[in-house]
Specification:
By secondary structure, the protein is of the alpha+beta class. It is built from 22 helices and 37 strands. The termini are far apart.
Length: 700
């Protein structure tokens, strides 16, 4: 019989978030914990329909439900309906997809397959140069559902490096992952370049494995973590950090979406692979809702609407990522840029203009060649000097400031430019206007004294939000990115800048999360995100406090003490880029831009040729009143011309006939209204449309 003392020593207490403290025997698994806490779990606020425990966070680290608990600790149950739980579901479903592909195409080489924001993907190299087809997706899905029906358990195993290499001796991409990380003496976890990646798990010496520190592992060196699941007559193993759901039976609400090309490690010089995208959710209802959102997103895709509405295209003669804007698309750009200029001038910004190319020495001094060269266009040799297309506007704005001695009386100095920059984005990441190689930023750089910094940032955040609200957005979040591992400058300066940015967000009352280590190499930053009409988040404005470039360029101002001081520098792009903001607006409004943004605001349609002169007269009156109007001649049936106008998403279509000529009226077809209004006086219509433009209303 055990003594009370030994019994006490065998017991641990686990503080389960949202449930309470649970006592259980040392070495118990998470499954045991859930069994003890079962009654409490039934009333968890996030334990609704389709919300099943799939993992736990032990002191913030995600673990399998099979992991053991060896000491007092705090845990959080991760359910399938949470963001973290969905990531586990998708991670596990990607694993099953790779298993299905390997079963259907023996000899397949599988690479990596992370969970993503709304789904997952996996990269494959099929044997014999074969390629997936849409029909193959149906076959893969069918095999996946068979694997799910078998309820195969996911079993975690730990192996030494040599054993791991032996297990994957027919999988060169897995071997490369193991060798690369092992070469770093186990300091990193294989596949950690993307969180949740189904690509490898390498535990460093002395790290926790399965919830327990293993001295044997500490002595033996790095260990490879793999997950194995065995079905009817077949076994599948993958290099993986985990966690996974306990078994394939936890899965089932998934859909494979498409096949695309990819390069191993995103490098076009490496082997080309095939990527299968899919999505997975905690319930059939959640999956159906997401697929409906995908359908809506497809209808709103700015690339398709850009063609349908004759806004822009990407000529192959120019190259990928470099759009040509047609008259209507250029008009939208002009409206956005004119609006940006007016708002900035009204807020005390000074306009500047800088060239598109500069000597490489400028970017050596700024540090961009050392830190950003991979995304810059290659150099051009001219007259013995090396030139580069500019990737950023900031070095040239610094030259404006540094051109002469500055006094504290000139600060804050707010420089503004609609500056076009060039970045050689890889072809695999180009995406219409949302990801281009030539982009125009509504770029501003503010130079101020230390005493002015907090006030400038508070004013700046308020200015950004007010401008974005003008376009009909009201749901904002922010991300504060802090010092990365590779950075320039002093830690104290970084801390000062980060605190100032956090203070500005708090003053604006905008919710934000801290993205540890994700700042640029030279500055912490704020990224402001907004939510569009179908619930998608877009990153738009960026603000950075930079203490490094002023030092690199030796910037200074004469203070009240007649001494030289270094100014603070704030980088800021409000739209992000004009091109990407256009993509956002087109998709948010499904191409039906508000009256003030629409390239054609009014379409005048004469009933017949005898009404064309009056139609021209009405169009002229509208144009004279400041409205963008066109008349469409009666060379097609009236109904066909009206339908075309509606497909072009013109806010107002005015139909004019015999009665209108005598009464100086028009029939008004308002976008979104099924019933036209007859006999509207032209002056009354002008007042209505002008009011929409002045108010920048978004309701029509």
């Amino acid at each position: 019989m055990e003594s009370n003392e030994s019994k006490t020593g065998d017991m641990i207490t686990v503080d389960v978030e949202g449930v309470g403290v649970v006592s259980l025997r040392k070495g118990s698994t998470i499954k045991d914990l859930l069994a003890v806490a079962a009654a409490e779990m039934l009333v968890r606020p996030d334990g609704g329909k389709g919300s099943t425990p799939v993992a736990v966070a032990v002191n913030g680290e995600l673990r399998d439900l099979s992991a053991s608990l060896e000491s007092d600790t705090a845990v959080r149950i991760v359910t399938s309906a949470s963001d973290a739980g969905r990531s586990v579901l998708r991670h596990s479903t990607a694993h099953v997809m790779a298993q299905a592909v390997r079963d259907l195409w023996p000899g397949t080489r599988y690479a990596i397959g992370p969970s993503t924001e709304d789904g997952f993907y996996y990269d494959f190299e099929l044997p014999g140069g074969l390629h997936f087809t849409d029909t193959d997706l149906e076959r893969i899905e069918k095999r996946m559902r068979e694997i799910v029906a078998e309820d195969q358990p996911f079993v975690r195993e730990e192996h030494g490096i040599a054993e791991g290499l032996s297990i994957f001796d027919d999988q060169p991409y897995k071997v490369e992952i193991i060798e690369a990380v092992a070469g770093e003496t186990g300091r990193r976890v294989a596949g950690e370049s993307k969180a949740g990646e189904v690509g490898g798990g390498l535990s460093p010496p002395g790290s926790e494995v399965g919830g327990e520190v293993s001295s044997a592992i500490a002595n033996e060196g790095p260990m490879v973590s793999v997950y194995r699941n065995t079905g009817i007559g077949a076994s599948f193993v993958d290099l993986c950090r985990g966690p996974h759901v306990p078994s394939t039976g936890y899965l089932g609400h998934f859909k494979l979406l498409k096949v695309a090309g990819s390069y191993w490690r995103g490098d076009e010089k490496r082997p080309q692979l095939q990527r299968i995208y899919g999505t997975a959710w905690e319930s059939e209802e959640a999956l159906s809702a997401y697929l409906k959102r995908l359908e809506e997103a497809e209808m709103r895709d700015h690339r398709r609407l850009g063609t349908d509405l004759d806004l822009f295209h990407f000529p192959p003669e120019i190259g990928g990522g470099l759009p040509v804007f047609h008259p209507k698309g250029a008009m939208i750009r002009t409206i956005l840029e004119d609006f940006a200029r007016k708002e900035h001038l009204g807020a005390g910004y000074l306009p500047v203009w800088t060239p598109h190319v500069a000597r490489s020495t400028l970017y050596e001094k700024s540090g961009h060649l050392a830190w950003y060269a991979d995304n810059m266009y290659p150099p051009m040799e001219m007259e013995g000097a090396e030139y580069r297309l500019k990737p950023m506007n900031c070095p040239m704005h610094i030259l404006v400031y540094a051109n002469k001695s500055r006094s504290y009386r000139e600060l804050p100095m707010r420089l503004f430019e609609l500056g076009t920059v060039y970045r050689f984005e890889r072809s695999g990441v180009l995406h219409g206007l949302a990801r281009v190689r030539g982009l125009t930023q509504d770029d501003a750089h503010i130079f101020c004294t230390p005493e002015q910094l907090h006030g400038e940032l508070e004013t700046l955040v308020a200015f950004v939000l007010e401008v974005l609200k003008t376009f009909g957005f009201d749901d904002f979040e922010a991300e504060l990115s802090t010092r990365p591992d590779k950075f320039v400058g002093e830690v104290a300066d970084w801390d000062l800048a980060t605190d100032a940015l956090a203070g500005a967000l708090s003053a604006a009352g905008i919710s934000y999360r801290v993205a540890e280590g994700e700042g640029a190499f030279y500055a912490p930053k704020i990224d402001i995100h907004l939510t569009d009409a179908i619930g998608r988040r877009w990153q738009v404005s960026t603000l950075q406090v930079d203490l490094q470039l002023p030092a690199r360029f030796g910037l200074s101002y004469i203070g009240t003490d007649n001494e030289r001081h270094q100014p603070y520098m704030v980088h800021r792009a409000l739209f992000g880029s004009v091109e990407r903001f256009m993509a956002l607006l087109i998709e948010h409004y499904a191409g039906a831009l508000p009256v003030w943004l629409a390239p054609v605001q009014v379409l005048v349609v004469p009933v017949g040729t005898s009404h064309e002169n009056y139609g021209q007269e009405v169009s002229g009156r509208l144009t004279a009143a400041g409205l963008r109007a066109e008349m469409r001649r009666a060379d097609e049936p009236l109904g066909a011309r009206i339908r075309k106008g509606k497909l072009e998403k013109v806010p107002y279509i005015l139909v004019v006939g015999d009665e209108d000529i005598h009464a100086h009226t028009a029939g008004v077809n308002r976008r979104g209204s099924s019933k036209p209004q007859r006999g509207v006086k032209i002056e009354d219509f002008i007042a209505e449309a002008a009011d929409h433009v002045v108010r920048r209303g978004s309701e029509l």
